[in-house]
Amino acid sequence: MTPETSGAANTPPSKIGYLVAAIMVVAIGAGIYLALTAGGNDDPGNAHIATPSSGNTNGVQPDERIGTPVEIGGTDLEAAAAAAQCELKEGLPDEGGEHIGREDPVPDYGTVPPTSGPHISPPMQQADGAYIETPAPEDVVHALEHGRVAIQYSPDLPEKAQLQLKGFYDSAYSGALLFPNPDMPYAVAATSWMNLIGCAEYRGTETIDAIRAFAVKHYGDGPEPIDLFPPLNGPSFGSN
Hints:
By secondary structure, the protein is an alpha/beta fold.
């Protein structure tokens, strides 16, 4: 080897190792970035999952079931809640909007289901869509901060009722979530930022009318713009 020989041949093995590691880190980071930010969900499927525009699925399984179409009632929230015997809580305390990470403990929220408070950092907010599994509460709360409505039901609800709720969700899914929640004292509930409706029993169309009226009134209520994480271009409670 001549004195003029240069490049990788003269690079000490330890430096080559650091160089390869650095290249791998950059490549992995670029891949993650593209996965979270590039493109859109051209085929959201029956679950209407809106990634990556509205957030992340966080590994929660979508609900691809075809819902049962249901009749849609009026939007008088107080009357609908009373008819369905649902508990309505509006204007709840603002528990803050601090961003937390996966390594942090789950916040001790003041309501069940939670309606505000510390939540996961972006871009890990729960994406709009229907899920067959339960998302982490801190992921859902971040979605609420951006004007989303989260419709939740007990996993013990008969499948016939679950499919009716899915059919209802299919009629207005943009900017909204649907998922089972085993950790609440209701058969069906819906939340928005600082608002909650909870129904101890599922009473068919009466319950759906109450949930719909709640969603129509409180869609877009979050302190952050709903379009900061754009929902799918589809039917929404905000257009009703």
